[in-house]
């Protein structure tokens, strides 16, 4: 009986692993097709200035809607696109599309917004990445200081030297660089010291605990003070309540982003939001 159970137990696991692997393979193939069929879309989430309440920046967040599977989260498909290399054409599409959109917004909006784009390690590892960015900006033409590239510690861990070189070039071109998910890695200070980072984005996991966990409130305050003394700007992510927003305002966080301010929305909806003057402060 036990033997039998043991066997079926193993079979169960093998099947499960196979299913997962098959699913991943299937998804990878679907991804290729999706790029050709233009099934990707960008959503945009506003980032507000804490003093004026105005939208000063917009983060582009990719969405994939497969005709049969429906909406697939970037947390699921970005890692797969990284594995099969599709992240390179996909990443270029994101850069091109987001810059084109931001340019349109800035033509009609008296207060220009920055466009923030998430990069993947594979993109940064391309030796000609900065030239590619520069090509896109030439095609669009879009002011480089309105382009903000989001990096994470984990994507900088390998190939530090070549990444540093690329980031220095991007910095010289005028791009802004921000360190995303700040506080969740192993040595955030080392990265701040080593790379030409303008802005840190405090991770949602701290912001969400602000009103319930004194440690999270203390960490958020300490990170903000520290970043400011290093002359870096601070963006708080994942703001979901008025209480959190008030706290962040008190500790002088520069900018905020989160569902309380706005969900990520399609471009047309963001155009509408940009027309409204101030957002949620007071
Ligand atoms: P991220 O860069 O940390 O982006 C923030 C994520 O938090 C987004 O998830 C956003 O929808 C979500 N979010 C925003 N405000 C709140 C809030 O108040 N509460 C909660 N619970 N969540 C909030 P999303 O859009 O599913 O993206 C997930 C991740 O996928 C991103 O995390 C980013 O790492 C990656 N990603 C998205 N678009 C791209 C892209 O174009 N290229 C690359 N390489 N990665 C991307
Ligand atoms: Mg991000
Ligand atoms: Mg993240």
UniProtKB/TrEMBL annotation:
Residue ranges annotated for the EAL domain, each copy included: 24-278
The protein's name in its UniProt record: cyclic-guanylate-specific phosphodiesterase
Native organism taxonomy: Bacteria, Pseudomonadati, Pseudomonadota, Gammaproteobacteria, Chromatiales
Full-protein interval shown: 663 to 944 of 944
Domain of life: Bacteria
């Amino acid at each position: 009986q036990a033997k039998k159970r043991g066997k079926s137990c193993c079979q169960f696991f093998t099947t499960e692993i196979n299913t997962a692997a098959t699913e991943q393979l299937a998804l990878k193939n679907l991804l290729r097709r999706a790029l050709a069929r233009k099934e990707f879309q960008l959503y945009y989430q506003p980032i507000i200035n804490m003093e004026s309440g105005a939208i000063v920046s917009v983060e582009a967040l990719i969405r994939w809607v497969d005709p049969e599977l429906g909406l697939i989260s970037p947390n699921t498909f970005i890692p797969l696109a990284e594995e099969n290399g599709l992240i390179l054409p996909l990443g270029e599409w994101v850069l091109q599309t987001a810059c084109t959109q931001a340019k349109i917004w800035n033509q009609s909006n008296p207060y220009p917004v920055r466009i923030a784009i998430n990069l993947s390690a594979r993109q940064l590892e391309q030796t000609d990445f900065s030239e590619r960015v520069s090509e896109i900006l030439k095609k669009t033409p879009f002011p480089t200081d309105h382009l903000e590239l989001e990096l994470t510690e984990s994507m900088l861990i390998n190939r530090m030297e070549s990444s540093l070189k690329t980031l220095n070039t991007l910095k010289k071109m005028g791009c802004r660089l921000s360190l995303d998910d700040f506080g969740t890695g192993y040595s955030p200070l080392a990265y701040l010291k080593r790379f030409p980072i303008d802005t840190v984005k405090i991770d949602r996991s701290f912001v969400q605990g602000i009103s319930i966990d004194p440690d999270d409130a203390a960490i958020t305050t300490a990170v903000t003070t520290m970043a400011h003394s290093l002359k870096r700007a601070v963006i708080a992510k994942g703001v979901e309540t008025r209480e959190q927003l008030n706290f962040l305002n008190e500790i002088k966080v520069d900018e905020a982003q989160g569902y309380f301010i706005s969900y990520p929305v399609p471009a047309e909806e963001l155009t509408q939001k940009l027309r409204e003057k101030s957002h949620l402060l007071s």
